[in-house]
Every structure is written in C-alpha cells, then in structure tokens.
Amino acid sequence: MGQEERDRVVATLPGEVTYEEMAMPEGDDHQEPKLLAREALRGYFKRRGRKAYVGSELPVYYPAERRFAPDLLVVLDVENHRRKKWLVSHEGHGLDWVMEIHAGGDRKKDAEFNVSRYARLGIPEYFIFDGGRLTLEGYRLATPDARVYTRMESRNGRFTSEVLGLDLQVEGEDVRFWAGNAPLLVSEEFIERLEDQTMTLQRRAQEESRRADEESRRADEAERRFKELEAELARLKKSQG
Question: How far are the Cα atoms of 194, 199, 211, 220 from residue 207, in angstroms, in the given order?
C-alpha cells in the first residue's frame, strides 16, 4: 500500500465514538476531574517546553484491536496539535499514560477489563480515579516488555508517575498533580492566587502609605516644636541681654 492510499485509509477511520460505544453520561463528577487534569497537564508540559500530546476521549486505534477512547491520555515527545483520532501505526507511537475516571455504575470495565487490556497493549502506566469513592489506583509495567501490570503503592496518599515525572493524589473531588512540593495549578487557581497576591500587596502599600503619612506628621510636629523652642531660646537670650 502506497503512502497516498494509506493516508486515504487513515482519513476514513471514524474520529468519533459511536453511541453504542459510549458509556452512560456520568455528569460533573466525571467531566470536572477530567477537564481539570487535562488543563493541569497541558500547562505543565507547555511551561517545561516539552513536546507532549494530552487528550481526552480521543478514539485510539491499535493494530488488530478494537478502538477505545480513554478519559485522559498522554503521549510524550510528539507534536502537540489537534487530532481527531490516534492511530498507532500512523503516529508511530502508542500511548504512554492513561487515566480513566469512574463516577458511577459498574467498575468492572475500568478496574478489570482495562487493567488487562492496557497492559497487553504495552501502555506503561494506567490510573483509575473513582469519583464516587474518591480513591485513586495506579498500575505500571515493571519492564518495557511486561504485559501484566504491577499495582502501585501510595506514599502518604500520593502515587508517583514515572512516565509523567509527577505525583498524583486525591484532593477534594479531583486529582491533584504535584511537581515535587509544588502543586500544578489550573487557570482559575492561578487567577485566584494572583488576586490574593495583588490584594496583599495593595494592603501592604496602604499600610506603608499610612506609616509614611504618620512619620511625615511626626516630622512636621517635631520641626514645629523645634522652631517654638528656638524662638523661646532667642527670646530668653534677648531678655537677659
């Protein structure tokens, strides 16, 4: 098959998941953690200047495998542009990291079927966030050739992703990513932090201005008193002369 014919075949592959393939809608408990995690990871790689594709619910095609669409996926060291699908044979690279977000119903697909499937496909790391139970599970291939996952152990509630170079933990109703001791913030959190810093600086400036006014008032009072004493001294000297 020539390249031109191959490109035509790739273009005809569906870029959307069909209604039959879709899971039942799970509402904000499913959408919010996914969108926040995607934004945090995209911002992280952008600030580091590292090429990475971060997608959500993108149809993925592995050779001889039924397509699937993870809630969140990361592929490192590839161009970051919009895609309608991820075709492994076309991209030349499989997925590096996957997270599924479970918000209700039967956990068997995420906790059993996908654990087996993603390991068999050679996806190095797989995480499951259960928004109902507020729990996080992590799985990793012990070696590049392994095709069975090893379950990760958390440390003080945090899991370490060797693929991302980040830590993950449940925080509130979402998943928080950490680079060392620094949390990855999303836009809204950046804005809130900047607003807090702005208000703090404004209060500090007002306090400094108030202190400056008070010091100026005291200086004026001291100068007035000095002139009064100077005048009184001159008067006394004159009266004695």
Answer: 20, 12, 6, 20
